Automatic annotation (TrEMBL):
One of its GO terms (molecular function) is aromatic-amino-acid transaminase activity. It is found in: Cytoplasm. Residues 146-521 form the Aminotransferase class I/classII large domain. It comes from Cryoendolithus antarcticus. It comes from the Eukaryota. Its main location: cytoplasm. This is aromatic-amino-acid transaminase. Keywords: Aminotransferase, Cytoplasm, Pyridoxal phosphate, Transferase.
Length: 608
């Protein structure tokens, strides 16, 4: 992702040459702005996106494909807001407006707003903070380019030009979309963007694609529109390209009662709920499938900047953080947007996970054609984000931190989330029975995904998968902690033979409570699966095994491998194989008879 260090010259003909501009960096933002001249944008001002992008900075890139064949009837019939379109005439010198229905800011009961925020690079405590101020008439008085009079009035659907410029620059610094006519427009958060995106592309009766476990709100937003969601198989690296291709290649419109889908909704980084992160190679392979089947990719990335340091284990030294802004940017997995040569990606970004969800400010990046469709919808529905939120975000990100300070903040929360994730994983290694539960350390996001081998439950298969899941869920609650059932995240629902999962989060719980919560979780698993905790031997080396009372005819008994003998015997691992289908399971000085596999009235008795 590193920008080119030199400027390449590509021949256009035998007699001319075209200079390819370098990629926008933090250091070159000031130069571009100086070339633009001062931004003056009043109430409901139109935004000159091409100016913010640098008018000649992307001319060497190809243009995006056209997507007329993918827009819904609703989107095709939307027209621009006629009243907001008239705002372009306010730029005319000497114009006196008697047309716009804008209230006078004289009657806004706000004279000044202030907020204390940390100084850039000093995020560990309240000692290094500054107070941001926003006055009613700062723009007219030359104190700021954005003020209460402007922000608190009506605006365009894509948001205030002042803050949109910052968003466009940030998007280019991080992703540098590889086609010419990309654009951004603000949203009131990704949930709303999902809703609008579905309306833009889908008709009632359509299907869309997603991971086999996905964000429930996306499924619930689609359902009232008559849009169904088909889950695509995953592994620990996220959505499987081969499975995506197979679903699309073998789509049966009659069996599915709907046309072949052309929208893929995916959360590629720190996926909710699985915590999986698609590698760069995985994303390239999925993008190739998207090109093959002409898909629109809705890239929902609220956790993109919560990519963490690799997990090294309970006793290993942590990996040092990036030492520069460029090293930090280079460490991020490339986005779909950064590899999108067709303009088929609609990327959803949000400040909800990295600043505050209550701000309700986000944005999409896509081809100008797609962004224009979105803006026209927003102009007659949600409008832009709250002007109050935009003003606060502008003061923080533009005037206080700038692009450099924001990257400092993102690196700070990266390390904070790394610590939280590591505390949870360390506790899992100590307390959660590995013979029943498995997991893959998450690389990003807020979530940890437990896979539970429910087939080792004492009552399986007499007890159904759904009943075992319910038993585990309530046992966890009974031990004083809460996880979410994995089945709640499956758009297709789960059947008897499917794997079982539970989702945990480490995002907001105090560190000491994370440890205690995982300890309780481990106890709940041991209780449900009839596994004892760490068992202490007596002076003669006899391991006393305390088991949960067993039902008649139960089949598979599994005992945790932490049996500590004394005097005459050392601790010996007593694994799952010793009680399923074996005549005698030995545990270093003691043995079990009356094993249960295949016996109608099996029971378990410990003998010295």
């Amino acid at each position: 992702m590193a920008p080119s260090a030199s400027i390449d010259v590509l021949p256009e003909s035998d007699t001319s040459a075209f200079t390819v501009p370098g990629r926008l960096t933090i250091q070159s933002v000031a130069k571009r702005r100086a070339a633009e001249g001062r931004l003056v944008a009043g109430v409901a001002a139109l935004a000159d996106v091409e100016r913010f992008k640098g008018r000649t900075s992307h001319l060497h890139k190809p243009k995006a494909r056209r997507w007329d064949h993918r827009f819904s009837t609703e989107s095709k019939t939307r027209l621009p807001s006629s009243l907001k379109g008239a705002a372009r005439y306010l730029k005319n010198e000497g114009m006196i407006s008697l047309g716009g229905g804008l209230p006078s800011s004289r009657y806004f009961p706000f004279e000044q707003l202030s907020a204390r925020v940390p100084d850039a690079g000093h995020f560990d405590g309240p000692s290094r903070c500054s107070t941001l101020h926003a006055g009613k008439n700062d723009l007219a008085e030359g104190k700021s380019d954005f003020d209460i009079s402007t922000a608190f009035n009506y605006g365009q659907g894509y948001g205030a030009a002042q803050f949109l410029r910052w968003i466009i620059e940030h998007t280019e610094i991080v992703h540098s979309p590889p086609y010419q006519d990309w654009s951004c427009t603000m949203t009131i958060g990704s949930t709303s963007a999902i809703d609008m995106g579905l309306r833009m592309f889908c008709e009632r009766g359509d299907w869309i694609l997603s991971e086999e476990f996905t964000f429930p709100t996306a499924v619930e937003a689609a359902a009232p529109m008559g849009i169904r969601v088909a889950g695509v198989k995953m592994d620990e690296g996220g959505l499987l390209p081969s499975a995506l291709d197979e679903v699309l290649t073998n789509w049966d419109v009659y069996a599915r009662c709907g046309p072949k889908p052309f929208v893929l909704y995916t959360v590629p980084t720190g996926q909710n709920p699985t915590g999986s992160t698609q590698s760069a190679q995985r994303r390239r392979e999925i993008y190739a499938v998207a090109r093959k089947h002409d898909l629109i990719i809705m890239e929902d990335e609220p956790y993109y900047f919560l990519q963490m340091q690799p997990y090294t284990g309970p006793d290993a030294s942590p990996i040092p953080p990036p030492t520069s802004h460029q090293e930090f940017l280079d460490s991020l997995v490339p986005s779909y947007l950064s590899m999108d040569t067709d303009g088929r990606v609609m990327r959803l970004d949000s400040f909800s996970k990295v600043i505050a969800p209550g701000a309700r400010v986000g944005w999409i990046t896509a081809s100008e054609q797609i962004v224009d469709r979105y803006r026209q919808h927003a102009d007659v529905s949600t409008q832009g984000p709250s002007g109050m939120s935009q003003l606060l975000m502008y003061k923080l990100l533009e005037e206080q931190w700038g692009h450099t300070g924001y990257l400092d903040w993102l690196l700070h929360i990266r390390m904070e989330y790394t610590e939280r994730r590591d505390v949870l994983l360390d506790a899992c290694e100590s307390y959660v029975p590995r013979e029943i539960v498995s997991w893959v350390p998450p690389m990003a996001g807020m979530f940890h995904w437990f896979k539970v081998d429910y087939r080792k439950h004492p009552a399986y298969p007499r007890k159904s998968r759904a009943d075992i899941e319910e038993e585990i869920f309530h046992a966890i609650i009974g031990h004083g902690t809460l996880l979410m059932k994995g089945s709640w995240f499956s758009p297709d629902g789960q059947g008897e033979g499917d794997d079982m999962y539970f989702r945990a989060t480490y995002a907001a719980t105090p560190l000491e409570d994370i440890q205690e919560g995982v300890r309780r979780l481990g106890e709940a698993f041991r209780e449900v699966f009839a596994i004892d905790s760490v068992v202490q031997g007596n002076g003669n080396g006899i391991a006393a095994v305390q088991m949960k009372a067993l039902e008649t005819g139960l089949a598979n008994i599994h005992v945790n491998g932490y049996i500590n003998g004394h005097a005459n015997g050392q601790a010996k691992d007593f694994g799952t194989g010793y009680t399923s289908g074996y005549g005698n399971g030995y545990s270093n000085g003691g043995h079990f008879d009356g094993y249960t596999n295949g016996h109608t009235n099996g029971y378990l008795s410990a003998m010295a």
